[in-house]
Amino acid sequence: MPLDPPVEAAMLAAVPGLHGFALALCRHADRADDLVQEALLHAIDKIESFKPGTNMAAWLFTILRNHFRNEYRKRRREVSDGGEYFAGIMAAQPEQESRIRFAEFRGALAQLPDEQREALMLVGASGLSYDEAAAICRCPVGTIKSRTYRGRMRLAELLCIDGAADLAPDKATQAALSGGNLHWMA
User: Fold this and answer.
1) CATH 1.10.10.10, domain 96-186, yes or no
2) pLDDT digits over 67-121, tens only?
3) What is the dihedral of CA 35, 37, 41, 47, to 10 degrees?
4) Which CATH class is domain 1-78?
């Protein structure tokens, strides 16, 4: 059954955010791609359960999160092969400054508790409201706000960020950041 063009457009618009959220959950780009694809296929299969007028992205995030959680429960019983250790040793270090900073950020993000990382990805990276994130995580809005705040503070601590000057390597970027909206730390 073909999708209505507005529904299809809303689903496609959510893909970058879904991918970022999936990457934060599973920490592997190839697995994140698979999670997004599986979530979209499930959503298409169950499109009749989507309520028109509600937030398509939030619905898709919920599907992705539930799928990830179900797979995690299944994998907990499996024995790890240890392949990730050797892959980490053999990986070449990035040479560009932005790649190094992004790798540091990903490492710091990985150190956060799952709940804080999840809240940050939903609210910070994906742009969902606290209410939408709380609905996805099935917890009170205050809990999402607390997790987001604690996650931001812990990230700043792990990355040794004291202010806007620490966020950018050059004066032009620093000026843009200081004149812009730096609410992520608040």
Assistant:
1) yes
2) 888 887 777 665 555 555 555 555 554 456 677 777 888 888 889 999 999 999 8
3) 80
4) mainly alpha
